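SUBJECT: protein chain
CONTENTS: sequence, structure tokens:
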Amino acid sequence: MDSIKIENIELFKVPPRWLFLKITTGEGIIGWGEPVVEGKADTVAACVHEISQQLIGRPAAAIEDIWQTLYRGGFYRGGPILMSALAGIDQALWDIKGKALGVPVHELLGGAVRQKMKMYCWIGGDTPEVIIEQAQSKVDQGFKAVKMNATGAFEWIDSTKKIKNVAANIRLLREEFGDGLDVGLDFHGRVHKGMVKPLIDELATYRPMFIEEPVLAENNKALDHIYAYSPIPIATGERMFSRWDFKEILHRGVVDIIQPDLSHAGGISEVKRIASMAEAYDVALAPHCPLGPISLASALQIDFTSINACIQESSLGIHYNKGYDLLDYMENPEVFDLQDGYISLLKEPGLGVRIDEEKLREAQKVGHQWSNPIWRNQDGSLAEW
């Protein structure tokens, strides 16, 4: 494979909020990646353009050497932009290698440890009015698990009424679906340290599958106290970008589920390393994925080869996907068909997804300027979104 050289790199900024990367070799083999930070697509694209000068002419098979060169070759390293750019490039190189050898990526990572992967999808949760309707829709699609936002905007220290409203949402789901539906609660970093324990007190009786990002990643030291207090599994990691970011919380033993994102945390190469680190600490893996089909396919390749992978997020029908959804750019959407809550082992060469480039080029004309909302508390102060 040393003769297969990187010849061209192209980017497609497409709705709803995605950035796709296409690497073409001299032999015409195409690899796809998804390097994006939600709301910073142009910034990541600029980073990819800067990096690309180090890639043209390199053997596409040299994935590890390219990863190390791009990570260590710059004086400044890490963080969401650099690691997301690197993630998309890494995904595309694994896609090329799999296609060149005629095997799915999971075969190159040592082979599958499971034949199907349990999935969950997002249902909202900011208000109780539509919670049952949204959950029923996902159950009808075949999901056995869902995730919802635990809260809307939250003050640093907030009211008893708002705490009880949070518990009311999951109570409605338990009353409607019993224990047959697994429910993850995403605190989304919206909750400050002083409110986490009161929320846990209200939520514990409903046995959520996990609470996600109970505090922001920059406040992970607070997990020492939260973890010791909580009977609910703690998940975090979507805003952590390398094994160096994860090693401290793994060493401290303050997390039950890690959630690296395949489009943010250095791609397939790095997330596989993070997954193996977590296994050594008896910590489960549930990759974060509110993005597109390439990111999801990359996450599944990791899931299929990681014994500690427990569940996988999908963006199908997520509220961000207005006008364009997970399957719209795919020529083979059937690979993501859900059977009894699971997606079966991907078997096509490379990442296993075939991208409809014609649709991609048309959608590129539309583009996007997505950014997350800015929330404010009743007094006008900024609230975490």
Notes: The two ends are 46 Å apart (CA to CA).
